[in-house]
Amino acid sequence: MAWNVVIAGGGFGGAYAARQLERLLPKQSARLMLVNDVNFLLYTPFLPEAAAGTLEPRHVVTPLRDMLKRTFLRLGAVTEHDPAARTVRIRDHQGETEEQRYDQLVLSLGSVSRLLPIPGLEHAIGFKSLADAIWLRNHVIETLEAANASEDSERRQELLTYVFVGGGYAGLEALAELQDFAADAMDSYPRARLQGMRWILVEATDRVLPEIDLRLAEYAARELRSRGIDIRLGTRLEAVEPDAVTLSTGERIPTRTMVWTTGVAPHPSLAELSVPLNEHGRVRVDEYMRVEGMQGVWAIGDCAAVPDPSAGMTRPSPPTAQHAIRQGRAVAHNVAAELGIGKARPFRYRNKGAFVNLGRYKAVGRLGRFTFSGFPAWWLARTYHMSQIPGTARKIRAVVDWTVGLPFRRDVAEVGSIGHPRPLRVEEYARGGSHRPVS
Asked: Long-range contacts: 363-370, Cβ < 8 Å, 24+?
């Protein structure tokens, strides 16, 4: 009889768990199923570069079918879990459901943008998916076009003001790359160039980049400020409107762009899956990534509170790609051990380095005891990320993108209508577009 192994979630943790299980479990003895909402793995560290047009969007994703040779990929979501019967219910994109029995279940559902009860937050855009990155790039181009066409100075300033909330990795990298892109593009928009852009970073704590060394964080802040970026530390977002934001200082800033990057929260569907959660909504697991009080159920990645070896096992591991990849590989060995193949191993990864891109040729980073900034850090970050991209073909495409793009300006074509075809109705053609323009 073949074992049924179900993996819920195809991000870094789930994809690398499936990949390792293919190597560990004999083909005839196990059926592997990966349930995911899309058929690709997104390399999230490249989201800012995809948004800025430095990399083609299709080069920051890897088809799961290219990574996995014998895992059955099921597009959909796990919506229910019965631990006693060892079954899960899967709903596909057409709304149809089916029940799937498992011998081993790995939860790797990832995370979503962390939301706070801020009035009007629905008017903001997150920065968590490829769709977010492409939308934001198109939106920045639309604001440049609209500002260049406007005769009203106040409206131009509103359109050319960009507010980012959250001073961690995602916020800084997204802001830095998009500001770099927009600064390059301004030569094509003479009226907008005369008006000038305003880029604002709002951070509630007293520093940016709490994940890295203070000296490097201060270097990053100085670099951004030297480019005219206004960094507001110790400041919170109080309210969002369609055309303005209000800060805790009482200042109201007219803007059409508010990007929310204040961290992540475990996927909300975990609450429906009959697993124990901690106070932050992450699945409770031990150092082997086994869900507390359950047999044959594991959890990894952003959705799991895996004890962090670098913190003496006193707090959960941070929600990073590096940790999720290692947890995926480790949990594969533990699942195999549960099925009688090999020995279980605890999670023991310690992060050895970190890099933060600040635009073309600029970055900060740490590698072991050594710290880097400027071009050396940028080059090391590129080299590291290139080595981590799954698949040789994707590595080559990313390198070609970077190399070909070096001597050229980035493309400013707005492609917001891609993926949103107009219905075959005369009035739709008369309107001349199918996506919501900047108003």
From this structure: 364/209, 364/212, 364/216, 364/217, 364/219, 364/220, 364/223, 365/212, 365/216, 366/212, 366/213, 366/216
